[in-house]
Amino acid sequence: MRLLDVPLQIIEKYKHFRKGKRLLPVPSNQKCNEYLKEIAEVCGINKNITFHTARLCVTLHYLSEICRKACGIPVTYWIDRFTLHEIANLLCQKELPLSEIAAGMNFSSFSYFSRYVSRHFGISHTMSTGSH
Q: What percent of the chain has pLDDT over 90?
C-alpha cells in the first residue's frame, strides 16, 4: 500500500529517532507533561495550560495521552493550529479591530498578539500592528 506524501514526510523527518521496530518516536507521559509545561514558557503563555485544554474541549490527561500516542508531534503544534485557525477566521471580519481580536483570544497583551501573528503568519510586525 502506498502512503500519501504527508505521512511519508513525517516518517522521513523522524527516521533518525527510530527505536526498535517503531517508525516514529513515542514519548512517555512524563515527556508529554514536560511539553505541556514548555508550551507556557516557549509560547509566552501566561495562562495555565488547562486554559488551552479547555479551549480544545479535552482534559489535560487526555491531551497528554494524545501527545504520547501521536508519535512525537508536540502539543504546541495543536494549540498553535487551533489558535491560528481561530485568529484567521477573526481576521477575515474586517470590522473587528485587532485589539479586540487579541482580547477575545485571551492574549495577555496586544503586543504579544502582534508578535504571535507576525511570527506564525509571516506578516511584518509593523503591518500587523497597523490598525488596532
A: 0
The mean of the pLDDT values for the chain is 75
pTM, full prediction: 0.48
Angle formed by the axes of helices 60-69 and 29-42, to 10°? 110
- Helix 29-42 vs helix 75-91: crossing angle, to nearest 10: 40
Q: How many CB atoms lie within 10 A of CB 17?
A: 13
Helix (H), strand (E) at residue 11: helix 5-13
Question: What's the count of helices (H) and strands (E) in the chain, helices before strands?
Answer: 8, 0
- Are the beta carbons of 76 and 39 closer than 8 angstroms? yes
